Every structure is written in structure tokens, then in C-alpha cells.
Amino acid sequence: MTSARTLNVLGIGGSLREGSQSERALQIALAGAAEVGVRTSLLTGPDLVLPFYDAGEPDRDERATRLVEAIRHADGLVVVSPGYHGALSGLVKNALDYVEDLRDDQRPYLDGRAVGLAAVAYGWQAAVTTLEQLRTITHALRGWATPLGGSINSAETKFDEGGGASDEKSVRTLRLIGRQVAEFAVMRAA
Fold it and tell me: 73 — phi, psi (to 5°)?
């Protein structure tokens, strides 16, 4: 790493189920980012159980404040959502809605940050449409979606507790997504 300060890549996603397939996919992507030498952190499941985002309500609970501050200080993000009924989960969407709290920052929204994206769903249709939605949201929030995104069909690919998966190509894809986020952050900081 060429930066004088430690760069941070934040992972957001997963589901309420501990050790979910999407959470394991997120951990693999963050491991790829860590290979570049950045610090990684993770907000999943219970960390994302937040009140529905309300732009008219300025008060935030402890978890919402922690999420917003983590995004504010992140040099890059990796977002992995399960695909539910052809769309990203409400849990992940609500968390991304809180990025609106950064609108008045010197670096508003996700400006100047790479965002690696992946969707994990039981079927290709939901995996692909969920990834497409994540890309659209990232662009709307001024983030730079990495060139590579991941659509993973959990009917075919199973992630294990050890950081691997039944499909090595999925592991390589996720690690590369994490690396692209970290490499972008390093180049931007140089």
C-alpha cells in the first residue's frame, strides 16, 4: 500500500440468518480486499436492523449512527445482498437509504469510492436482477461500481464456514471484486 494512512473497506450485507450464504460471500470479498493491505470491517444481519429510513427524522439510533459513521470513513465498500423475489433485501436497501445522511458531507454520498457488488439468490433470475438493482443504487449514490460484479446462484454454489465455496470460480470472482475496491482506494489515495 502506498498511502500514509490506513485505508478502510467496509462490507455491508448478508441477512438476518447468522452465517447466511450472502454473508459468507461478503466475507470472501473482504478477504480479497485485505490481500491488498487495507483494513476491512463488516456490518451484517443484526447490525443492519434499523428503523426505516426517514429523511425528515434527524435523530438516529445507535446502530444507524454506527452505520452512517462507518460509511463516512470508508474508502471503499463491498455490498452483498441476498435476492428475495427478484430484488435486493429490505434489510440491505434500508441500510443503503441511510447514505442519504451523507448528502451534505464534503464527500457526499459515496462520491469517490469504489463499491464492489454481489447478489446471492436461489436462482439466476433473482441473482442477476438483484445485482442490477445494486448497481443502479450505487450510481444514484455517486459511487463507482467496480467493473466486476457477482451474481451467484445459491442453488448451484454453496459457501462453507471456512471461507470457501463449492464453486471455485465464485470464490475467485468475489475475491477479485474485493481487490478491485481496495486497489481503487489505494490509487485514489496516492
Answer: -95, 5
